[in-house]
Amino acid sequence: MITYALLFAFACFGAGLLFNLWRIAVGPDVADRILALDTMVINAIALMVLYGIWRGTAVYFEASLLIAMVGFISTVAYCRFVLRGDIIE
Amino acid sequence: MTEGGGFLPIIAMLPFLGALLPGLMIRAGRNVCAVTTAMPTILALVMLAILAPSVFSGEVIEAEIAWLPALGLKASFFLDGLGLLFAGMILGVGLLITLYARFYLAGEDPMGVFYTYLLLFQGAMLGIVISDNILLLLIFWELTSLSSFLLIGYWKHLPEGRQGARMALAVTGGGGLAMIGGMLILGNIAGSYELTEILAETEAIQASDWYLPALILILLGTFTKSAQFPFHFWLPHAMAAPTPVSAYLHSATMVKAGVFLMARLWPVLAGTDAWFYIVATTGLVTMVIGALIALFKDDLKALLAFSTVSHLGLLTMLLGFGTPVAAGVAVFHIINHLTFKASLFMCAGIVDHEAHTRDIKRLGGLASLMPVTFAISTVAALSMAGIPLFNGFLSKELMLEEAAHTTWAGNPQIVGIVATIGALLSVAYSFRFVAHVFLGPVRDDYPHKPHDPPFGMYAAPALLAVLVVLIGVFPAATVEPLVNLTAGAVTGQEMHMHLKLWHGVTPALFMSVIAVVGGAILLGLHRPLDRLWIAMPRPEAKVIFDWIVRQAATVSGRIAEGTHNGAISRYLAIFTAATVVLGYLAWAGGGMAPATREMLPIPPVVGVGWVMLLGATLAVVVMHRNRFRALVLIGIIGLMISAGFVYMSAPDLALTQISVETVTIILLLLALHFMPKETPRESGPALRLRDAVIALGAGGGVAMLTYAFLRRDFSTISDFHLENSYSGGGGTNVVNVILVDFRGYDTFGEIIVLGIAGLTIYALMEALLAGPASRRLRNWDFSRDRSRDRHPLMMVVATRVMMPIAAVVGLYIFLRGHNQPGGGFVAGLVISIALLMQYMASGFAWTQGRQRIEYHSMIGSGVVIAGLTGVGAWFAGQPFLTSAFGYVHLPPIEEFELATAALFDLGVFLAVLGAVMLTLYSLSRIARYAGETVNIGPMDYDPSQPPEEMAREEAERREEEG
User: Fold this and answer.
1) What 3-state DSSP class applies to B194?
2) Which of the 8 DSSP states describes residue B27?
3) Do B670 and A86 touch (CB under 8 A)?
4) Which one of B622, B840, B929, B961 would you mutate to disrupt binding with A, by most A Cβ within 10 Å of its Cβ?
């Protein structure tokens, strides 16, 4: 059963990634692109976790945790750039 | 090392050590300085004298100090007859020159500098003549070129001095380059770089296909050094040097180095047709041309310079004959030439010093004014002319005898005739030196009223003149043993030459008579001949040389500007295209095994990742002119590569990649703030097409290469790493063990590079902000519509919460790095990201105010810790960076491992953290210069502070922002 659930989840998040890509490519706004990139990071983390479940190992969880910890920093940086220009004032 | 061999390295080192002193001792006065200079020379002479008896008894004294044995480079010295003669000449004349220079140099000339150069040169020359290892010899050879450059250009204020020095360096240095090639070939054929061993390999060397290239290259070196035609032109121009330098370099030492080397290698190189025709012919031509030009030179020193060229040609010719007797005559003439030529140079210097001119046409009649100088000059000049009772006569007779018996291309007379012409011209210019300078009526238009110099100045030439006569009258009693010993060392066989005044009626006697009579007649005709010479067009060597230099500079400039025009796009295009072509050639060369691996199915999720990568890459290409958008797209690529690493079971790399990605984005955004947001279109369609083709070729090539590798089984070094990681490095995380142990040396280099990069960015920014850029920044236009939310409360609080978590994660990753995914590099990045967050949230000033450790020192201590860890291995008797590890069990906690690699990793951690933070610090400093204000508080609205204080701060800030 878990196999099917995993396959379904893979398909969803994979499709999600592709939609993110589409959003980043067409925009139209900078904010759309940044948001899409942030979502993409989240989707990628999800895929890694799923892959960890699939393979039955904990190593991927750690990697995904770390990506989660630092992944949002670039989003913040992009946003600060758009809002204030200088990201470290 | 044979008995007494210990002296040899000391003899070689003494002048170099001594060179340190004159510069200091000049403060104690000129006499003290000169005496100090003489001391190392005298010491070396004494040591040489101690060794001389053993050398005379046929021993070869050897000494060896291992230096770089892996390269065949040993500091090995040996002293045989030839070395003894030359070392004695170099030191002996060096001593005389030291004395002479003391009186010659004027008060305003920096004497300490002069003596330092002189000793450096003397050391280099000594090194050449007693080196056993030819690589060592080459080093000394180059040193003579360099130190003679300094000596020739000693009078820096004279343009002729500088140009002459440059020319000498260019010619002798160029020849030295050729000689390096020749010597390496020679060493390769002989299988050894030791002269003593090479000299025993005559047959192997002469039979080798590489004999001729080696011969030509070595001869290029010796011919340039010994000023043989057509490289003779540098020597007269080097006469711009002070006379002591000319006397030393051009009579006894520098120019004799080439002759020395030809004599040294005589046993292995001489005796072939190639040797005879190249060396003997060059020598013959040089002898005649040098003598001819000398006859028409009005500058005393130029006359002597060309005479030196001529005599060097004579020596070269004798060595070129290839017969042992001719080589013996060459040795004899080396001694004779030294005595009369050094003496003549010094006399020319005295005349110049006293009469303030060296122009023969302005001199004449000095005999009564300077009787002592006249006497010395006459003795030396008569010897140079080859008049009986003077030593020049003996060697010239022997030379003519040899020339008369030499057949050149089937013609038995030609060498004898040409040699006689050379001798005739030589007589003419020697007589002219005496007749036109000292004889004739006393004039009253000398630039300065001449008189004999003080004793100290003429002591040295006088001593040499005495030698001229002594050797000339009693050759058998004075120099015969030395000549036989040296000739034996040159030819490698016992020599029994008998030097005597009267040889009976031989062809040489007739040739001598012709030469003397003809020379006298020629001198009588000098005036009309001189007018003819001046009217005749002749090639001016300096003009040609300058033209060649200019052309070479133009051509290299064109090449350099064509390939190095400063546009990185061109460098990359050349580099990439060349790589692709090489890759293609390697592939087209065949030798590729057929594919052995099956294609794997593509899982859909991986397919999605692939589409993402490709899509993002294409999007970057399309949108790259909008820089911010390109940065966002690059974020996708980084994320996908990290995901790929995770999928390929490389969590380490994924961690590193994602951290690097984040730091990169932040730094790029920081820089982008001050840069145009759009990349302008700079290249035309043709150039863009070229770039597109190159890019596609390179990308396609790499893809094909990867595909080819993935389809084939091959063994890599990875297997070794996997097997030895735990047993050798004590860690189960292979990646980390590779970084800190197997390839620790690389990592050490890399963190140093990283640290330097960080410091360079800091330094560049410092220089940039001190320049015009800071004025431009002050006028920066910030009119863009900005959010008023400068330091949002939400973000500040979130980053504060994240800070300890991130720090703990960093520590955790660092500690477990040796056995589990992680390590110092990732940990450094994680911590720096944690700090970066604070900078972003609360601003530069607030965060910087809380930073206790300078980032510079963090880089430094990182490198030092890593280095010390490496050095620590030495104390255990292991090579640099050998790691050690052990397991420790402390009761309350589990058994754990302690490895020196962890300490090394700490260094990596600190260096990475320092470099990243320093770069960030440097980039964000720009904003200060752009007139941005800084905040004192951590956030825009701080609920923990009383409202009235906040309002006051807010008011202050608004005031500042104006």
Assistant:
1) strand
2) G
3) yes
4) B840
Q: Retrieve residue B379's tokens.
A: 């003795």
Buried b (16+ CB within 10 A) or exposed e, A3-41: eeeeeebbeebbebbbebbebbbeeeebeebbbbbbbbb
Does B714 fall in a domain?
A: no
The predicted pLDDT at position A42 comes to 92
Total of domains in chain B = 2
Of B504, B534, B555, the domain-final residue: B555
Domain annotation covers residue B378: yes
pLDDT tens digits along B803-840: 999 899 888 888 887 777 778 888 898 898 888 888 88
- Is the Cβ of B667 closer than 8 Å to some Cβ of chain A? no
Quick one: tokens of B262? 């030809």
pLDDT value of residue B511: 86
Closest-CA residue of chain B to A19? B612
Interface of A with B (CB under 8 A): 10-11, 13-15, 17-18, 21, 24-25, 30, 33-34, 37, 40-41, 44, 47-48, 51, 59-60, 62-64, 66-67, 69-71, 73-74, 76-78, 80-89
Question: Domains in chain A, please, with CATH?
Answer: 2-84 (1.10.287)
How far apart CA A43 and CA B587 sit, in angstroms, is 41
With a cut of 70, say whether residue A36 has pLDDT above it.
Answer: yes
Residue B128 parent element (H or E): helix B111-130
Contact B659 A70 (CB under 8 A): yes
Give mean pLDDT, residues B158-176. 88
pLDDT at B679: 86
| Statement: residue B605 has pLDDT above 90 | no
User: Do the bridges between strand B885-888 and strand B73-79 make them parallel or antiparallel, or are there none, so unpaired?
Assistant: unpaired
Choose the final residue of a domain: B526, B555, B584: B555
- What is the Cβ-side half-sphere exposure of residue A18, based on CA atoms within 13 angstroms? 12
Q: What is the pTM of this model?
A: 0.68
Please name the residue that has the structure tokens 């035609």: B229
Three-state secondary structure string covering B268-309: HHCCCHHHHHHHHHHHHHHHHHHHHHHHCCCEHHHHHHHHHH
Question: Binning pLDDT at 50, 70 and 90, where does residue B551 land?
Answer: very high
Give the residue-averaged pLDDT of B117-125.
91
Considering the domain boundaries, does residue B861 fall inside one?
yes
Closest to B376 measured CA to CA, from B339, B337, B335, B347: B347
Q: Is B960 on the interface with A (CB under 8 A)?
A: no
HSE-CB for B170 with a 13 A CA cutoff: 20
**C-alpha distance from B728 to closest chain A C-alpha (Å):** 25
Q: By percentage, how much of chain B surpasses pLDDT 70?
A: 95
pLDDT recorded at residue B783: 56
Q: Do A63 and B786 touch (CB under 8 A)?
A: no
The complex scores an ipTM of 0.93
Is residue B520 assigned to a domain? yes
In this structure, are strands B885-888 and B896-899 parallel, antiparallel, or unpaired? antiparallel
CB-based contacts of B5: which residues, under 8 Å, 6+ apart? B61, B62, B63, B64, B77
CA–CA min distance B899, chain A (Å): 24
What tokens appear for B801 in the block? 């919460």
- Amino acid at position B898, single letter: L
What is the span of the domain harbouring residue B910?
732-780+789-962
Q: Name which residue leads in pLDDT, B717 or B855.
A: B855
pLDDT at B947: 65
Element (H, E) at B887: strand B885-888
Per-chain mean pLDDT for chain B: 85
SS3 category, B181: helix
Distance CA B655, CA B633 (A): 20
* A24/B633 Cβ within 8 A: yes
Asked whether the bond before B946 is cis by omega within 30 degrees of 0, the reply is no
Q: How far is CA A28 from CA A31, A34, B167, B631, B673, in A?
A: 9, 11, 69, 16, 22
